[in-house]
Amino acid sequence: MAVGLFGGSFNPPHAGHLLVAEIALRRLGLDQLWWMVTPGNPLKSRSELASLGDRLAMCEQLIHDPRIKITAFEKALGGAYTADTLAHVKARNPHIHFVWIMGADSLQTFHLWQKWREIATTFPIAVIDRPGATLSFLSSKMARTFDYARVDEDDVGTLWKQKAPAWTFIHGPRSTLSSTAIRATKAPQPE
After folding, report:
1. Digit-coded pLDDT (tens) for 84-94
2. What is the dihedral of CA 177, 181, 183, 187, to 10 degrees?
3. pTM, whole model, 2 decimals?
4. Taking every annotated instance into account, which residue ranges of this chain make up the domain Cytidyltransferase-like (predicted)?
5. For the domain bounded by 2-175, which CATH number is listed?
6. Where are the domains of the chain?
7. Distance (Å, rounded) from C-alpha 82 to C-alpha 47?
């Protein structure tokens, strides 16, 4: 079985997240995609974070594809970082082929994630195009460091069969939606 892992705050989830999920399912030939709704994000402010329960409920309302599973198992891991979560997933599911899914906008700061090199060597990574990140992804530290492990976009259907490190960039339709922008439109305006 081939499963995509798409982690994030989903604060709030939106059609752009859904587009990334649909592209990953279709282009990578995945059987399932797990949305891993994180309890928190060490690179983002907790003050703006809706409760985990609220974010899970919003994800459930948005998702209608039975191949997409909404999860929050990271909470039970006690605030684990992504590298720890992926090691846990790998140990518990030795017969499943996983691919880490991320938006191209996250690639710019990927080198700031704890144990980012370990993440890149745990599972293959599919980077999905996002507005403003199409060309800049090549200059990211991750892309430069793992340039030798880049899989041609024409071969993305076999990415889940690759041994990490292996990564690809997938071009396609892009959504300009962002959780940050959505939160900003809902923030109280000064009088």
Report:
1. 999 999 999 99
2. -140
3. 0.85
4. 5-184
5. 3.40.50.620
6. 2-175
7. 21
